[in-house]
Amino acid sequence: MKAVILSIIILGISACAVIDPWVYKINIPQGNFIEQRDVDNLRVGMTREQVQFVLGSPVLQDSFRDDTWIYMYRLKPGRGDIVTRELSVQFDNDLLTGISGDFDKHEQFDVPLTE
Known about the structure:
The protein is of the alpha+beta class. It has helices at 2-19, 36-39, 48-55; strands at residues 28-31, 60-61, 68-76, 83-92, 95-101.
């Protein structure tokens, strides 16, 4: 009798591994979804308000350095590898001076916007 119960438990546990590929798992996005075309709209000399209009509110503002905003995006798909993207935006006197991270600087980034 114990062998039958033990067999049922083992089969029940192993069935989860067999069924798992057919179970739907949702994608879990977190943070700011930013595309390269959004970053291409940034120009040196933009104000904080202009940067926030283009990219949205940052996920993280450095508490020790008020001149840095960090935008992060993480996607945990139901199946597959986790995708992470990061963009760090630097200001000096409330004007955009530089960006770094997983995105390329646009060739016109160093050309300020004209008013």
